[in-house]
Design goal:
This protein is an alpha/beta fold. It contains 14 helices and 15 strands.
């Protein structure tokens, strides 16, 4: 895990690869991973960990544009991998279908959407889901502007809000979990699909509050402080253990790669990279500051790739308040063989 604010943008990694999974020679090409800023650190580390076979050169790029933007590119057939911090929705499934694009849904890691304040904030230690709703719902726009309006014991100072933009899967998941609907959010706040902007927004203002993925909090712990969230299991701080123990609810969520099924079955470059990312999934997630799946779960995900299990296990719906086990069970419902249960 690197220290300091993460660098977003595009990373090009030149690789060498020879005969692939299908026993054919690979063509020089670029593998593009586009989408979630939360998944972006995983993609960067996956590229760093990748060791291609000898052969023709190709490039791998990763960019953080937001889950919705990445899935639009994916369903238009312009990229092979979409990085997503929420499951694909019904509209996106329909868009993929209209272009004849089938896909594999591959869980990579878990995330704790983390509510953060400036370290100079000496009064807010915990915040409830009801208080978050008071602060972030559409009904609060232009009305709830001060800390004391959220909690009467907090100072009567103006609060600055920093959060993801509408293209972000974090925006969708947070608003569904806290406000009951993906689109139910106030808009009078500092918004960005670049989590580095949100980190700076909170780190540079002692009266700011924001939310974003756990990995960006982990990389910037010296300039941020995470609040415990009083949700379904009482006040719980975001951590690897609290997510894996299914206590940090309702702000835990799975993270995904959506991979073009036709491309991954015909392009040995793409298949080798995806396979490598899953085989080294725990190491990649840990080094990226993320919450890894269990080793046995990465084997199950790899099996989805081998068996070419297509489609979404979430039927276009955003699961909220499910435990880690429930989410994984849903994701692997297709695998009925006893050895994979």
């Amino acid at each position: 895990m690197g220290a300091g604010i993460r660098q977003t943008g595009v990373l090009l990694a030149a690789g060498l690869i020879g005969a692939g999974w299908l026993g054919v020679s690979a063509k020089a090409e670029e593998i593009r991973i586009v989408g979630s800023s939360t998944v972006y650190p995983f993609s960067l580390e996956a590229i760093r960990q990748f060791r291609p076979r000898a052969g023709q050169p190709f490039k791998i790029s990763a960019s953080a544009t937001g889950t919705s933007a990445g899935l639009r590119e994916f369903c238009a057939g312009r990229i092979g991998i979409a990085a997503a911090s929420r499951p694909i929705n019904a509209k996106e499934i329909k868009a993929c279908g209209s272009k004849g694009i089938s896909f594999l849904e591959l869980p990579l890691a878990f995330d704790a959407i983390t509510v953060v304040v400036n370290p100079a904030n000496n009064f807010a230690k915990s915040i409830s889901t009801a208080q978050l709703q008071t602060l972030w719902s559409r009904a609060s726009e232009g009305k709830v502007k001060r800390w004391s309006q959220v909690n009467p014991s907090w100072p009567d100072d103006a609060i600055r809000l920093c959060g993801p933009g509408r293209e972000s899967g974090t925006y969708d998941t947070f608003n569904k979990a806290i406000n009951g609907d993906e689109a139910n959010s106030r808009q009078d706040y500092t918004a960005s699909e670049d989590d580095n902007v949100l980190v700076r927004c909170v780190a540079n203002d002692r009266l700011a509050l924001g939310y974003f993925g756990f990995d960006y909090y982990q990389a910037n712990r010296n300039s941020l402080r995470a609040l415990s969230v009083n949700g379904l299991r009482g006040p719980v701080a975001p951590s690897i253990k609290s997510v894996q123990d299914s206590r940090y609810l309702p702000l835990s969520r799975p993270l995904f790669y959506y991979v073009n099924a036709k491309a991954v079955n015909s392009d040995p470059n793409l298949r080798q990279f995806v396979n490598s990312s899953l085989q080294k999934g725990r190491k990649i997630a840990e080094r990226a500051g993320m919450i890894p799946l269990q080793d046995s779960t990465y084997l199950l995900v790899t099996n989805k790739l081998y068996r070419n299990v297509q489609g979404s296990a979430f039927a276009g719906k955003l699961p909220i308040g499910l435990s880690v086990g429930q989410i994984l069970q849903r994701s692997f419902d297709e695998q009925k063989q006893p050895q994979f249960r």
